[in-house]
Amino acid sequence: MPPPPEPTDFLLDGHSPERYERDLVGAVGTVSTRLASCAAPFSGIDHSALRPTVDAVDLDQPLDDTSSALRELDDLYLRDAVYFHHPRYLAHLNCPVVIPAIAADAVASAVNSSLDTWDQSAGGTLIEQRLIGWTCSRLGFDPDRADGIFTSGGTQSNLHALYLAREHALSACGIDRVDALPRLRVFASVDGHFSVRTAARLLGLHPDAVVTIATDPHQRMNAHELRSAIVAARAEGSIPMAVVATAGTTDFGVIDPLRAISDIVHEQPEPVWLHVDAAYGGGLLVSPTRRDLLRGIERAHSTTVDFHKSFFQPVSASAILVRRGEWMDPGRHHADYLNPARMTLAGIPNQVDKSLQTTRRFDALKLWLTLRVMGADAVGELFDRVIELASAAYELLQSDPDFETIAPSDLSTVVFRFVPSAAERLEPELLDAANLAARAALAANAEAMIASTTVDGRTFLKFTLLNPRTTPADIAEVLGLIAEYASAHLPAQPSLAS
């Protein structure tokens, strides 16, 4: 019997290329086998059933070989994982991922660069900077003057943007910082992302600093209401700090009127920061047919783009981009042990002095390899396909008298609910419960994964379509199941039984 391996045997270095290749091939094979046999987006298992299996693992007793651990992992995780690549996964903003990006992730994990300073990443720094410039060009920013940084996701990107907006406002208002801080206000649509409120709390703003702006009948920020809210804030002595427009709201997939909003921001007597949260809609930057939907974004001070949504990249890959590089100065810092000022003066590039993170994974490599293998147009074509699918799903729902829809999406979201013809005789709470029961039944029976939300106090269901392999036939079948499960949850009535 061979002796157990030494701890150093598991280190990835020049002594272990055979183990590295063998274990990675084993991992890929395990996942490939599971993908090939995946018949549903989710097994339907309940957390109470899976927890005892996970809890039974003795973490103080290693298995000593990767193949055994992978077999165990297949039972603990892969068998019951939620698979975003499955065409019946229709729930959240999770996309199937492209193979070049997965290959890049494997490279990034093996080399393990930290994208904070040149002497920890070298070429990785230059690749990230090049991608920042490329994205800025797509936004309509001057790449020679713009800048940005990759982040962990839209929440961090939005936080970073509002931090820069806060510092911008405090330096421009001519008032003592302590006095000005509680007067700062941020204006965002009622359907804007929750991270705007989170950022306001973290930045020490007033509890009521975020002013929510009503939406129009198409669920977009009402520009007239925005202008009135800014005027009212100034009249009461508040300081408008930022406007956050959304290019792809999480619930409805709509794009706020960016041109009208940017006009309002730029007509203000004192500076107001315009941030566009394009975490979802950023994929339009590579769309061969729909780039014009983002017209006006080029006038933003900052923008969030999540590549792990509509660019079909693995989590995580996001970026904050600013139109002028000097606007990132409030976050710059120099540490003698890391990026001393002398290195910057010598022209040695680093990314840490404009990031909220220090150690930072080389997530930009995923996008780089994707663009080098597939090209931007191919990625944009994938996003276009799911937008077209959403339009087809919306038309299908519109033609069915047993479903109610919300205004159509600009992107790939469809919000609807089951409302049978006899609904006027049913309590609204019963309809809410029936729709939620249908959602739960789809997951429990391993048939589909969908999401839910609330509109005007009522429960609605939601498709978030990000899989180009999903077909109208998939949508039609899922809608049939929803009608079946929801009807079964409602009291028997003649009109429902026919």
Give an overview in words:
With 498 residues, the chain is of the alpha/beta class. The chain has 18 helices and 11 strands. α1 (17-36) runs parallel beside α3 and α4 crosses α14 (364-373). The chain is globular and about 75 Å long. 41% of the residues are buried.
Keywords:
Aspartate Aminotransferase, domain 2, disordered C terminus, alpha/beta, 2 domains
List the helices and strands and how they pair.
Elements: H1 17-36, H2 47-55, H3 66-76, H4 99-111, H5 118-121, H6 123-139, E1 147-151, H7 154-172, H8 177-180, E2 184-189, H9 195-202, E3 210-213, H10 223-235, E4 239-246, H11 258-266, E5 273-278, E6 302-306, H12 307-310, E7 318-322, H13 341-345, H14 364-373, H15 376-398, E8 403-405, E9 413-418, H16 428-444, E10 451-455, E11 458-464, H17 472-489, H18 494-497
Parallel strand pairs: 2-3, 2-4, 4-5, 5-6
Antiparallel strand pairs: 1-7, 6-7, 8-9, 9-11, 10-11
Helix pairs in contact: 1-3, 4-14, 6-14, 7-9, 15-17, 16-17
